[in-house]
Amino acid sequence: MTCKTCYIESSPTNDALVYLTLAEVEEYLDEAEQLGVREIGFTGGEPFMNRDIVPMVAASLKHGFEVLVLTNAMRPMWRFKAALRPLARERLTIRVSLDHHTSEIHEQERGLGSWAKAIEGLCWLSDNGFRVAVAGRQLPGEDLAEAQAGYARLFTEISAEVAGGLVLFPEMDETADVPEISEHCWNILGVSPSSPMCASSRMVVKPKEADRPHVVSCTLLPYDPQFALGSTLAGARGPVPLNHPHCARFCVLGGASCSS
Fold first, then answer.
1. In what order do the strands lie in the sheet with 131-138?
2. Where would I find the beta strands (DSSP E) of the chain?
3. Where are the domains of the chain?
4. What pTM does this model have?
5. For 62-104, how does the pLDDT look when each residue is reduced to its tens digit (9 = 90+)?
6. Which CATH class is domain 17-252?
């Protein structure tokens, strides 16, 4: 499956990254615990394409972390239903991607037939006691309150409990012109430099042909070498320049966060 405007350019034809192994994840979990990290998130593409995803989640929970898994809730996740059930009432949030509160617009993004599968997966998670969240999109020109009301109606119609909340991400176009973020912008916008996720979060990825994973500053920018920060979490704790269009549109001006 390929999304038309996937935030991190994931598709079956993009093989720049490979799956992390359980052993690699456990090494970073040990370091994260030493650094006082609170939350571990798993994203993709689709995390449930990785056959080790459930042991990775279980290991993260065993370390005492809050865990967030971002998923399409479709057939890759369904393979793990039996293994997932024991984790339902742990410190685990599963955030399901629904690109709109209507099937028509969702399927324009995800493809024909994707809506019913995603709704089935979302309802299964809700019915089995998981803490469910939903990530959607606020379309250009769409009123925020109307979008939120549309999702609320949907959750009522399908009888799904979304205790983890709803987050609506802004549309992004890397080629579109956006304002630069300067030091003066913080006071103008009334936003703190500590608010973007890169001030306190990091992402671990493994490039194809690499001997080991490395750390990048942002979940939206796993391929850009200027945001690669070395092989350890401790070594990646420095400041990050906000010099990518996504920094302005998604994080600073859009106020979006990939965290729970």
1. 39-42, 66-71, 92-97, 131-138, 166-170
2. 17-18, 39-42, 66-71, 92-97, 131-138, 166-170, 203-207, 214-216
3. 17-252
4. 0.90
5. 999 999 999 999 999 999 999 999 999 999 999 999 999 999 9
6. alpha beta
